Amino acid sequence: MGVAELSYRDAVIRGIAQEMDRDNRVVFLGEDIGKAGGVFKSTVGLYEKFGPLRVRDTPISEQAILGAAMGAAMTGLRPIAEIMFSDFLAVCFDYVANEMSKLHYMTNGQLSCPVVIRTGNGGGARFGAQHSQSVENWTMMIPGVKVVAPSSPVDVIGLMAAAVRDPDPVVFHEHKSLYATKGEVPDGVIVDTLGTAKILRAGGDCTIVALALMVPRALEAAATLASEHGIDAEVIDVRSLVPLDTQTILGSVSKTGRLFTVEENPRLCGWGAEIASIVADEIFWDLDGPIVRITTPHIPLPAADHLEDLALPSAARIVDKVRRVLKA
Amino acid sequence: MASGSNPAVQSAPLSNDDIGLERRLELFRLQVEIRDCEKRAHDLFFQNLIKGTSHLSIGQEAIAAGFGVAMQKGDKSFCTYRGHAHTLARGASMEGLLGELMLRDVGLMRGKGGSMHLTSVEHDVYGSYAIIGAHLPIACGSAWRAQYLGEKDVSVVFFGDGTTNIGAFHEALNFAAVWKLPVIFVCENNLYMEYTPIGDVTAVKHPAADRAASYGLERILVDGNDADVVYRTAQAAIEKARRGEGPSLIECLTYRHSGHSRADPGKYRPPGELEEWLKRDPVIIYRQRLKDFGVTDDTITGIETESKRKVDAATATAKASPPAPVEILTTDVYADGGWAWRN
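C-alpha cells for the assembled complex are given below, as produced in the milestone run.
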C-alpha cells in the first residue's frame, strides 16, 4: 500500500468523499460548497462527483443549515453540514446548544442526531475578530456534543470518517491556517477513533498538550527545546476534546511531572483549563511544579498581522515559557 | 360514505359529503378528548401534580384534530411546547402524555423531557420544541430526507403566531420553497405571542399569511376553529406536498381560552374578547355540526362519555406510576446509552 503527500485541504475532500462513497445516506450541505467548491476550496469536486442531490448549496441561512441537518439526521440520513467560519456558529448556536445536544436525552433515547458540523476554525489569516476565533470550547461545554480538531491530513480523513459514522452530533473544527499544510497519507480507506489523543513526540522532561494549529508549533518548540536548551518535551495532540483521552495525558504527565497546555483560544475557560483541572484532581502528587497554560490573551483577535502573530501562541513563545518555567 | 344503514345517523345528509361520517366522528372524538385531557392537565396543575409549566390548547383543538385526521401513518409532526394537542392527535396515549406532564415513569419520555418536549416516535411525533422557531428548519430537514430517499411522507410543523417574527421562520420558509420540500408550516394564530397582542409587534395584519408571498407561496388564511375547514385545508396541502409540489404555509385563526401558560389568567385581554371567542368554541361548533348532519345524540354523548372515561383512567394510571428510577439521570446523553465524555 502506497503513501502519498496530501494537503489538509485535499484531505477534507478525500475524507468526505470516502464516506459519501461508502454510504448513500451521507449528504452534504452548506454555503458555496457545491458548484463553487467551498470558500477555502476544501470541497472541490464533490458536487461533480456526487451530484446536486447529495451536495447541496444552501442560502446564507445557518439556522436552516443546522436545523435541516438535524431533521434529516433524526429521520435517517447522515448529514455533513458546513458552517463556513466557526465564528458563525454563534448565529445558529441554538441547534448545537439546545437542539442536537439535548435530543437523545430529552426524548429518552427515542431520537438520535448523527450530524457532523464541519467548520473553519482558528486564526492566522488576518481576517479580524469575527472570522478568526478558536471556538472549540464553545461546544466542549455542552453535554451531548462531541468535539474534534485534527492537526494533520491523515487525521482529517480518519477523524472525519469516525465523525460521520458516529451516532452523535460532532463538531469538526478544521483549522483555516492548516489547509495548505501537507502530510503523508496512506492509500485506501482510513478510519480513526474519536476520543484518542496521539503522542507525537516522546520525551521525559515535560508534557506539552496542544490542539490543531498549536500542534505543529508545539512540535517546532519541542525541537528547539531539545536542540538549544536540553529539554526533552513530550508532545501530545489532543485531537478530540469530547470524548477526551485523559488516560494518555495523565500517563504522560505522571511520567514527566510537568504539564504545559498550548491553546489558541482566549484564556478564560479554554480547553486546557479542563485538562489542568483533571490533572490537578487526579495526579497532583505526580506533579513536580505548577501546570502552565499558554494561550492567546483574553482579547478579541486583531486583523493586523504583527498584532495577530503576537496574540497567538508561537513556537518561540512556547520555547520561552517552557524554558523559563523549567529552569526556574 | 353511505350512511343510510349506519345507526349513528338518523338521516343521510352526510352521504354526499367529502369528509364523511367516519372522519367527522374522528374529528369530533379528537377534539373532545384533547379538550378533556387539557382540562384535566389544568386541574392537575392546580393540584400541584404537574410541576414546571404547562401550555394548554383549550380553544385550539380543531387545528390538531383537523391535521391529525388528515395526516397518514408516517407523516411526521413537529410541535411546540404547546404540543399536548398535536401529540394526542397522532394517537399517543393519554397515560403517556399525562404521565410525562406529571414527570412519572409512565410518561412518554419517563419524565426526562417534560411537558414542553413531548415526543412519541412510535406515533410519528418527532418532538416538541421549546425554543421558538427552532423546529421549522428541523421539519425542513425531515422533508429533505423524504425527498432525497423518495419516501412519500410529509412533515408538518405547528407553531404560534409569535414564531413568525423570529429568524428561523424566515430561513425555513425560504429554504423549503427553494428546495421544494414536502413540508407544511401551520401557524396557529391565537392572537397573542405570549402576553402581547401579535398585532402590536408585527408589521403585517396576518403574521403568517401576509408573509407567504415573500417566499412565492400561496396566501392561505383559514378559520382554525372549524375542524372541517382545517381538515380540508390540511388534506389539500398534504396531497400537494406528496405530489412533490412543495411546501405550504397555512395560517389558522384561533384563540386560546386560557392564558399563555401555567397560572396566567390572561388579564391582558380586553373585556368581552374571550366571551366572543367562546361563542366560536370549536368543540361546540363541531358538536352542532354533527347534529346538523343527523348524528344521533347517543353517538355524540357516547363519544363524550368515553372521552371522560379515558381521561379518568389515564389520570389514575399516571398517578399510580412511580417516578422513573434515578439511574436514568445519566442515561442517553450519548447514543451509546451513557454519558461518558472521557476515558
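The first strand of chain A starts at residue 3 and ends at 7. Chain A has a mean pLDDT of 98. Further analysis is deferred to the final report.
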